[in-house]
Amino acid sequence: MTTSWKIGDRIEDRWEIYQIVKGGMGIVYIVYDHEHQAPYAVKTFFDDEDDNSDRIADFTEEALTWINLDVHENVTRAEFVETILEKPFLFLEFVSGGDLSRWIGTPRLTDDLPQVLRFAIQFCDGMNHAAAKGIEVHRDIKPRNCLITEDNTLKVTDFGLAKAFQTAKPALNKKQRPARKVADSSAGRTVSGTGAGTCTHMAPEQFDDVARVDVRADIYSFGVLLFQMITGKLPFPGNTWDELKQQHQMQAPAPLSESLPPLLIELVSCCLEKNPLHRFADFLTIRSQLAHLYEQLTGAQAPQPAVGAKLDAVEWSNKGASLSNLQRHSQALDCYDHALGLDPQLKETWNNKGSVLRTMRRYPEALACYDHALTLDPSFAPAWNNKGLTLEFLGRHEDAIACYEHALGANSQLKEAWHNKGLVLQALRRYREALSCYDRVITLDPANAAVHSQKGFSLQALGCHAEALASYDHALMLNPGNAEAWAQKGSSLRVMGRHAEALSCYAQALTLNPDVVSGKFRGWAARALLSCHRFFKTAGKPRDPQPCSM
Fold this sequence. Notes:
Helix content is 51%, strand content 9%. The protein is elongated, with a radius of gyration of 29 Å. The chain is α+β, with helices and mostly antiparallel strands. Helix 13 packs antiparallel against helix 14. It has four domains: 10-93, Phosphorylase Kinase, domain 1 (2-Layer Sandwich), CATH 3.30.200.20; 100-167 and 176-298, Transferase(Phosphotransferase), domain 1; 310-362; 447-550, Tetratricopeptide repeat domain (Serine Threonine Protein Phosphatase 5, Tetratricopeptide repeat). The strands form three sheets. A six-stranded antiparallel beta sheet has the order 1-2-3-4-6-5. The protein has a two-stranded antiparallel ribbon with strand order 7-8. It is built from 22 helices and ten strands. The chain has helices at 53-68, 107-110, 113-132, 160-164, 215-231, 241-250, 262-271, 283-298, 313-325, 329-342, 347-359, 363-376, 381-393, 397-410, 415-427, 431-444, 449-461, 465-478, 483-495, 499-512, 514-517, 520-537; strands at residues 10-11, 15-22, 27-33, 38-44, 78-84, 87-93, 146-148, 154-156, 190-192, 195-197.
């Protein structure tokens, strides 16, 4: 389902959008969370006109990379992952001081070499932490990917290319972007042939094959970044991909001022060696030399290496929830167990662990987790709701209904419990009771396309096809990609004698969701399609629909 939010909108009636930043590889919303009263930077991918499956897979890898980085003061922190409108959204800490590009070419750096060295040391600490967490190569080091906090702490950000090219791929993407003019260091990423990255900062070898570079490509990009911080300028003046490729691969960089410390000139030169074998092998070595330089220059002790903080119980639990949203259920269970080992009184963690176990079809264990959460808080509505859902999977429908009623007794505004109760009543063919539940959900959440569709199904089962049709239309207005709603709408249209429209709906359902149609639904839809087609050919007389007596 596509998203078209604008500044001022609220996502899920919770996250208010204050700024929208569109980049080469995705989109970032700067939002304020009215529930947690905190700002976030929320990243997702652009919608594909045809199919989002590849984008979801690539973005999931990026999100996993962020989540597994945990906590370090020199890396932008991933807070959690949410699935919204069938898309994953990565919520990152909001760094209010802007990025390093605002500092480049200003006296804050060009006239303050100790500050340059402090930022360079912090950058190395962030990269060393990422390496310890399995990030072999960042692939897109530049000023815009170094965020600065209000207290002048640098944080490495945007690991979008870190996993995208961890292994060689036959093609970068479906729609290759042409090389374009690059005006300055704030330019976005460029993709050309098998090279990818920001061409003002790319290592010579990265222009030819982004998938097969190693950490020394990042060290080259860091050399460009360090050159910029010192001089306010890039080491190469090219404006296009081809110009910069030729300069990075063949020309010597602009010389640094001889007034600079010789060791610093030597360090930058080593980073910018054309042959990766002649560069530093890792950021640990660079960090050590920068610290030595800092002490020589200032006479003060260099900053001590920043170490990633250990996660507390709530952070382990949040990491588990993010991994669960990314369908990494075994890893999520490990996180929940870490959290509960630190604090067994976290009812939300017991509830979340139960949900993962339910997804893995380990129903008895899931029920035990919900019961533990309810022992801690007997009025914990989400646990009652999830327990009901698990009992429903076990075929214990009446017990499930009792759990949903417990949940609604504790929180009558819990739309998930109303929805789930409606679904189980519908499964029991208690359609009028189900309709009452769906109406409560629609009152609480009018834009819930799935509930409008389910309401249509219950109305259809009661023979109220005109009313069902209105519900399906509402559902499809909210989510045109709902294949089942298209198919059920076709069924009502067929019964109403509107065979040409029914044919169109069945065809749309088959086009939208071949995975659903490949099972028993395919036979039903095909038979209905054939029945409609035959009826339409013989010009069967449509009958007038009867109003539904509610």
